[in-house]
Write a structure and sequence with these properties.
This protein has four domains: 3-113 and 577-602, Hemocyanin, N-terminal domain (Up-down Bundle), CATH 1.20.1370.30; 127-273, Malic enzyme, N-terminal domain (Rossmann fold, 3-Layer(aba) Sandwich); 284-470, 3-Layer(aba) Sandwich (Rossmann fold); 475-564, no CATH class. Helices cover 41% and strands 10% of the residues. The chain has 26 helices and 16 strands. It is α/β, with parallel strands linked by helices and 610 residues long. Helix 21 links the parallel strand 11 (416-419) and strand 12 (443-446). The protein is globular and about 80 Å long.
């Protein structure tokens, strides 16, 4: 226990001191919370009956991580590396997260996009055993029963739920959506220290419209077309109500729902429960942070922003909403008035009052366009409205042409251009072209990582290197979740999200050097998450939605309070406790994501300390 965190070691989520454990032998080694393999000390091996079950040499966590990294590097491709990491997570939480933390830039694309998308597409073929909670729309009456198997009210802090309809740009993946719920939770732990044994990944299996899955004899999900309408809504509502009843302090994160449902579900539950949709709000938050940083570098202000968003789906509208709300707050005007500064373009062209089949989320941005004829193109809009911000969420590669970019740069000294579509092959433009077409003046952030770009853009034509930022949701959503969990927020409000955005924007490396990225990289995300959590908590307290008591208000003390409750991949000593009176966690009775098949499931009896 360090002097810094001793003040808050009494907190339920404190990471100081030992971990209570009431099991021994194989049961202990088969639990990823307790297992530390060759790192178990001589004392632990005797105390917990591990002698004879482990080789004699005792290794450090660093030695284990080095060995695991060599094993990782030996795998032939990224999908095999992803599978290896999943296996490691099954065995030992600390070692798994230590390995990821040590190599976060290298491994991020393997545990998340794009490799996780490939794993999800192959879910039924790679399947070895379940990890997460599978809820079936044909068994709606069993939802509460099935959720209840994952613990008691105090056991779960963070739930990620997906219906698998719109996964990572690869579309409907049915029950394979459980892997995106798992992946998001990995990022919450890696990036913000959410305790991995206090999270719950869920998939709502409503069928699939992916014909390849329906025709695949190995497909593991409900082999029917997607259920929609009243039955679907009842299923989602049953899940939300059961989750709130069973885990009343848990934060619910909706992930990769389809376009017709994502915003509708979020708007339905947001006024009632602490919930978040990363595709809508997370994308909006991180993009707004990049925009705010870019405007600051260009000596512009949010209130003077004119933005064109190319791609009016869930992400594009989510970005528009975040920017709209911030403009409204800055100028003290209505959201409807602020929306006039934002233009949305989709496949037919600019969204206008004449555009057919607008969603209710898109309608606020529909414009009256006086030129007549066909709905105007992206180039038409850029030439007429002279935006200082251009965002791409279209998945249309090359959509930001030289003519469009030069037309934008002609009216703005430092245009902010964000081609965000994933994966890389679907980007609207690459940073090298954007910088070349604007003589290095464009402020660029992308949806995938790109290498630095060199060019003669310094004083007197001196060659400089510009680092494009990656507009990665993982810089933002884990910190928002951490703040909401720690203050036990009743709701996640607009002010909490804007506070998170400002926290990220103020940490922009570009504020000190305009050739640096607009946003912090994932390798710096844990201190960024502390800052985000602090701003979220302070906003929640100010708005009266924080329910946790005795939250510090002084900045340094609040940061210590937050860090004390962030899980770290370190081996804390195991403390032997008796079974009688021990927690279910200490007795390895909780269903833990990633744990090896438990003795209870195998029909044998756990060996407890007595």
């Amino acid at each position: 226990m360090t002097p810094e965190n001793s003040k808050f070691s009494h907190l339920p989520l404190s990471t100081s001191g030992p971990i209570e454990c009431a099991v021994t032998g194989h049961v202990l080694l088969n639990n990823p919370i307790f297992n530390r393999g060759s790192a178990h000390s001589a004392e632990e091996r005797r105390e917990f009956e591990l002698t004879g079950l482990l080789p004699q040499s005792i290794h450090t966590l660093e030695q284990q991580a080095g060995r695991a990294y060599e094993q990782y590097r030996s795998k032939p491709d990224d999908l095999a590396k992803n599978t290896f990491l999943t296996s490691l997570q099954d065995q030992n939480y600390v070692l798994y997260y230590k390995l990821l933390q040590d190599h976060i830039k290298e491994m991020f694309s393997v545990v998340y996009t794009p490799t996780e998308g490939e794993a999800i597409q192959n879910y039924s073929r790679l399947f070895r055993r379940p990890a997460g909670c599978f809820l079936n729309i044909k068994d709606t009456d069993r939802v509460e029963h099935d959720l209840a198997q994952w613990g008691r009210p105090e056991d779960i802090d963070y739930i990620v739920v997906s219906d698998g309809e719109e996964i990572l740009g690869i579309g409907d993946q049915g029950t394979g959506g459980i892997l995106i719920s798992n992946a998001k939770l990995v990022l919450t732990t890696l990036c913000a220290g959410i305790h991995p044994d206090r999270t719950l990944p869920v998939v709502l299996d409503c069928g699939t419209n992916n014909q390849e899955l329906l025709d695949d004899e190995l497909y593991l999900g409900l082999r029917e077309k997607r259920v929609r309408g009243a039955e679907y809504d009842k299923f989602v509502d049953t899940f939300v109500n059961a989750a709130r009843k069973l885990f009343p302090r848990a934060y619910i994160h909706f992930e990769d729902f389809g376009l017709t449902n994502a915003r509708r579900i979020l708007d339905n539950y947001r006024p009632k429960i602490p919930c978040f949709n990363d595709d809508v709000q997370g994308t909006g938050c991180v993009t707004l942070a990049g925009i705010m940083a870019g405007l600051h570098v260009g000596k512009q202000h949010v209130k003077d922003l004119t933005m064109v968003v190319f791609g009016a789906g869930t992400a594009g509208v989510g970005i528009a909403d975040m920017v709209r709300d911030t403009i409204a707050s800055e100028k003290k005007i209505s959201k409807e008035e602020a929306a006039k500064q934002i233009y949305l373009i989709d496949r037919p062209g600019l969204l206008t009052a004449q555009t057919k089949d607008l969603s209710y989320a898109q309608k606020m941005y529909a414009k009256d366009w006086e030129d007549g004829g066909d709905e105007p193109s992206l180039l038409d809009v850029v030439k007429k409205v002279k935006p200082n911000v251009l965002v791409g969420t279209s998945t249309k590669p090359g959509a930001f042409t030289e003519e469009i970019v030069k037309a934008m740069a002609a009216n703005c000294e430092r245009p902010v251009i964000l081609p965000l579509s994933n994966p890389t092959r679907l980007h609207e433009a690459v940073p090298e072209d954007l910088l070349k077409w604007t003589d290095g003046k464009a402020l660029v952030s992308t949806g995938s990582p790109f290498p630095p770009v060199k060019g003669p853009w310094g004083p007197d034509g001196k060659e400089v290197t510009v680092e494009p930022a990656e507009c990665n949701n993982s810089v933002v959503f884990p910190g928002i979740g951490l703040g909401a969990v720690l203050c036990r927020a009743r709701l996640v409000t607009d002010k909490m999200l804007v506070a998170a955005v400002r926290g990220v924007a103020e940490l922009s490396p570009a504020l000190k050097d305009d050739t640096a990225p607009l946003l912090p990289g994932v390798e710096h995300v844990r201190p960024v998450s502390v800052r985000i959590a602090r701003e979220v908590i302070l906003a929640a307290v100010e708005e009266g939605v924080a329910t946790e008591r005795e939250i510090p208000t002084e900045t340094e003390e609040l940061d210590q309070w937050i860090r004390e409750q962030m899980w770290e991949p370190v081996y804390r000593p195991l403390k032997r406790v008796r079974s009688q009176g021990a927690s279910r966690r200490a007795k390895a009775e909780l269903k833990v994501v990633g744990s090896l098949p438990g003795v209870r499931m195998l029909g044998t009896r756990a060996k407890y300390l007595t």
